[in-house]
Specification:
With 257 residues, this protein is of the alpha/beta class. The protein has a single domain, classed as Spore Coat Polysaccharide Biosynthesis Protein SpsA, Chain A. The chain has helices at residues 20-32, 51-61, 75-89, 109-117, 139-156, 172-175, 187-198, 225-240, 246-256, and strands at residues 7-13, 38-45, 65-70, 94-97, 122-126, 133-135, 168-171, 202-206, 208-210. Helix 5 packs parallel to helix 8 and helix 7 packs parallel to helix 8. The longest helix is centred in the middle third of the chain and has 18 residues, at 139-156.
Length: 257
């Protein structure tokens, strides 16, 4: 049990000029209230609006804020990899991934830290754990999510009920061994696939997912046949017993060091 685990919050951001300042201020306030060493890493993923300029101004205001500027858009998965690379440079034990639209409420950060103290390797926010739910989300999206997570959870064979949730914390020693390649949101499932074989302890934090507000741009995630394939191929691999090779994991670990 570690009394003060160090961690960074990784936030991918693309064309979020309407809400990025609210997000950064809320997250910086949250980490400043904690006793654990913490920082906020925002990955400006090739934004073409004013997101970069806003982040540059805020970086001079908040010592705990680090901005990673990507010249071109690499997608959510690319931004996640950039965030991991920056996190690996700092003295952090965990990376906590959050969205830039504040649908992941900073009030749950403390619950993540508690699970870090208890030594969990992978900590997932869960809408489907006792006490979790979704508010203001269209019913058809909730239905697809419930069914998809039920199926994926059983294929993965892990004690996780909200597999597709990107609001999660992973021990950096585990993250740097993952040869992540997905460009889009399917990187969340790709991370869980590798975590199955690299991590030992899993935990969940019940939370309430809220809808994006009028202060931020419309979500870039859509339910399409290709998205279902990219998401489900990882739990299917687990179901079929397809493990990542030791050579692949070793190369990924060497590339990060």
């Amino acid at each position: 049990m570690h009394p003060h685990p160090s961690f960074c919050i990784v936030v991918p951001a693309y064309n979020e000029e309407q809400g990025i300042e609210r997000c950064v201020r809320a997250l910086c306030a949250a980490v400043q209230s904690l006793s654990s060493p913490a920082a906020v890493i925002v990955v400006n993923d090739g934004s073409t609006d004013q997101t970069g300029r806003i982040l540059q101004r805020l970086e001079s205001e908040y010592p705990r804020l680090q901005v990673v500027d990507c010249p071109t858009n690499g997608g959510y998965g690319g931004a996640v990899r950039q965030g991991i690379a920056r996190a690996a440079e700092g003295p952090f034990e965990y990376a906590l991934f959050m969205d830039s639209d504040l649908t992941n409420d900073p009030k749950y950060i403390g619950a993540f830290v508690e699970q870090m103290r208890l030594g969990a390797d992978v900590i997932k926010a869960s809408r489907y754990a006792e006490g979790g739910r979704a508010e203001g989300v269209p019913a058809y999206r909730v239905a697809i999510s419930v069914v998809g997570n039920w199926v994926a959870g059983r294929m993965f064979g892990l004690p996780i009920r909200d597999c597709t949730n990107g609001f999660q914390a992973i021990r950096l020693a585990v993250l740097v061994r993952m040869p992540l390649r997905e460009r889009g949101f399917a990187v969340i499932m790709e991370q869980l696939y590798y975590a199955k074989y690299l991590a030992t302890r899993f935990a969940e934090v019940p939370y309430t997912l809220t809808a994006r507000t009028e202060y931020v741009r419309k979500s870039s995630f859509y339910y399409r046949p290709g998205a279902f394939y990219r998401y489900l191929k990882y739990p299917v691999k687990c179901l079929l017993g397809v493990r990542p090779s030791k050579a692949v994991l070793a190369r990924a670990s060497a590339a990060r060091t």
